[in-house]
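ok so for the tutorial part 2 we go from a plain amino acid sequence to predicted structure tokens. step 1 is just haveing the sequence, like this:
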Amino acid sequence: MNINFDRIAAVLFLTVGVLFMIGSKHISSSSYGSVVGPDIFPFFLGLLLMLLSIRLFYETFGGQGQERNKEKLEYKPFLIIFLSTLIYILSLETIGYVITTFIFLFVCFQTMERSKWVSSMLISACFSGLVYYLFVNVLKGTLPGWPIWF
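step 2 — the prediction. this is what the tokens look like for a chain of 150 residues:
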């Protein structure tokens, strides 16, 4: 555990949480007469992120004098997941939700644990297909479908 890194991360996450809460107030508060509108979910996510970051910041003062388990930071997995997230964002509209999410999850799972590629493939496929089905068919929402050439 790196105390300085944890403190910086806690402050950054606190800032992101505040921005989420402020940004959620710019979303319409209700839709079609419903009490729960589209602004509720991002507001509570921001609140949760703020509370967790405050807890992380508080915990850094408990172990100030000690640096436990001086671990080597692994930059390669971070860069792989960061780049795959950027590619996911850029290709979501053109390739579609199901295919892009499947590839993204598979790459992330393989980055974290290389040996279990069959279970990674099954989990990625089931998750992306199930979320697409639930959101589009059950909740009647919209997600980028299949590619035009598919």
